Amino acid sequence: MSQLIAILSGARVPESSSRFVRGVAILVRPFARLWKLAESHELNPWVFIAMSLVGYLAQAMVFLPPFQSQEWKLVFLILLRLIALVVPFYIFFNGRRIAAVFNVSVAAMFIFNTTWHVCYYVYA
């Protein structure tokens, strides 16, 4: 079991491992590297997972019958854009050794896209 945990955490897969262990390691290795990258910049990877789940939940609620009116669709559009802003701001304020200019540009892009989508939705 400790060998599997070491492999999943990004260690090299020994040739003596079973095909299953090597297959799982190949599938999990990119995620393990991203997890380590987030932790190396003092970011909590669970924030990214939670914000993804909240975004998927808000996006799924658009299709429920009580939320089929135009007003609700606009509310969910704005909510999804606000949720999308949380992650760049989290990186900007909590991340260490990450280029602040990159994160500000990502936040500016989200603000511009949100303005564009809301105006297009309202006036189109």
Please write out the topology.
Layout: H1 2-8, H2 19-40, H3 45-61, H4 70-94, H5 100-123
Helix pairs in contact: 3-4, 4-5
Count of spatially separate domains? 2
Taking the sheet with the most strands, its summary is: none
What class do helices, strands and sheet pairing give?
A: mainly alpha
Helix content: over 70%
Number of helices: 5
Q: What is the assembly state of the chains in this entry?
A: single chain
Uncertain residue segments? none
Walkthrough of the structure:
The chain has helices at 2-8, 19-40, 45-61, 70-94, 100-123. With 124 residues, the chain is mainly alpha-helical. The protein folds into two domains: 1-40, no CATH class; 44-124, no CATH class. The protein is flat and about 60 Å long. The longest helix is centred in the middle third of the chain and has 25 residues, at 70-94. Helix content is 77%, strand content 0%.
Quickly list its features.
mainly alpha, single chain, flat, 5 helices, 124 residues
Q: Nutshell version of this structure?
A:
By secondary structure, the protein is mainly alpha-helical.
